[in-house]
Amino acid sequence: MNMITNHLPTAELQALDAAHHMHPFTDANGLAAKGARVITRGKGVWLTDSEGNQIIDGMAGLWCVNVGYGRKSLAEVAARQMEELAYYNTFFQTTHVPAIALAAKIAELAPGDLNHVFFAGSGSEANDTNIRLVRRYWDIKGKPWRKTVIARWNGYHGSTMGGGSLGGMKPIHAHGGKIEGIEHIDQPYWWGEGGDMTEDEFGLARARQLEEKILQIGPDNVAAFIGEPVQGAGGVIIPPRTYWPEIQRICDEYGILLIADEVITGFGRTGNWFGSQTFGIRPHIMTIAKGLSSGYQPIGGSIVCDEVARTVAEGGEFFHGYTYSGHPVAAAVALENLRILQEEHIIEHVRDVAHPYLQERWSALADHPLVGEAKLVGLMGSIALTPNKATRAKFAGEQGTVGFRCRERCFANNLIMRHVGDRMIIAPPLVITPEEIDVLIARARTSLDECYAGLK
Ligand code: PLP
């Protein structure tokens, strides 16, 4: 076989890809028919594809490239670490400097007494760890019956068996099933499901479903509640302001562990280091991944509070871990990424460009005839496409693919936006400038216009 490089013609790369590469979350038939877009380079918020198109990445890859593409110092740190110690594990009472330094840095940045880190290779793995960790915690506390974890419909916590089960996406459950001991309550999606309630009333009503579920299962059987501060993959559902305080009250009242899945909202996305700070949540455990290394290396983890970590330690050995827990190269790169976020004041930059610059331009999209709602927190935003703004109706039947069509128009206009049903979402690299925001908004508007024209 010829060497496969960027220099091969796109069609040849696409044919090889369709023949041998099984893609995640992709319809393989579509791939064979149309071919995947081949991305070849990245710099800042910009991607280049194999046809030389300059694409603005409105999704930071998969919500992860927080510091932007093409950072030389991250490559240098990785190379140096590979030469010095490419791999060693953290099992059986061994450790190494990158894992020590990264855990200490995360403990410094995380709020409250979240001072301990269990490393994983991804967000899904970290959530699998969380299931085992909270069950182990209650075992040691002498309450082994406290096993159930409550999560939300349309939440996303990964696609391993544990992560996929915690998530509330039925198509994922349908492929491979769901583990036992996970229960779901409804999501706090006011625009889509709030009916006649005010946003505040709806936020309280949806949070109180947690209390109802706890009482139904029996408080002594519930180990934990898990939620994303802002549902990302579910469509950037920003909860009503009444929601999280009520969830916090209920967890406190029933002594239930609270897990904030910060895989997307961590490391600056909402304008604070963690989404929990933006929404006033006091979790016992945080799930992290993505922005931890800005996607330059695969790494995730669970940040654990003093009490849970102490209890698990009292129980002796926890029979759990991954070959790549605290991988030295990933840890060194993550540490350098945190240095960049901090020293370049990127979280302050998020606050500066998001409010009011992006906020004003994003909200203005609600004037478009296709758009019912345009919402944003920090640098994650969504718009809801609707045939009727007044009734907040959904597109029906054949038209139910409007989100997909709109995403295709974005692609054609060299803007990456994602669709979740008929919600369009953005989460660009956190280093996006006002000028680049103007490009993003202009391309989004053109794409909406083209999509709307295609419906008539
Ligand atoms: N949790 C949340 C909130 C996520 O958004 C994701 C991925 O999108 C995950 C967990 C899973 O992370 P990973 O894909 O790294 O396994």
UniProtKB/TrEMBL annotation:
It comes from the Bacteria. Its cofactor is pyridoxal 5'-phosphate. Keywords: Aminotransferase, Pyridoxal phosphate, Transferase. InterPro entries: Aminotrans_3, Aminotrans_3_PPA_site, PyrdxlP-dep_Trfase, PyrdxlP-dep_Trfase_major, PyrdxlP-dep_Trfase_small. Gene3D superfamilies: Aspartate Aminotransferase, domain 1, Type I PLP-dependent aspartate aminotransferase-like (Major domain). SUPFAM superfamilies: PLP-dependent transferases. GO terms for molecular function: pyridoxal phosphate binding; transaminase activity. Pfam families: Aminotran_3. PANTHER family: AMINOTRANSFERASE, AMINOTRANSFERASE CLASS-III. Belongs to the class-III pyridoxal-phosphate-dependent aminotransferase family. This is Aspartate aminotransferase family protein. The lineage of its organism: Bacteria, Pseudomonadati, Pseudomonadota, Alphaproteobacteria, Rhodobacterales.
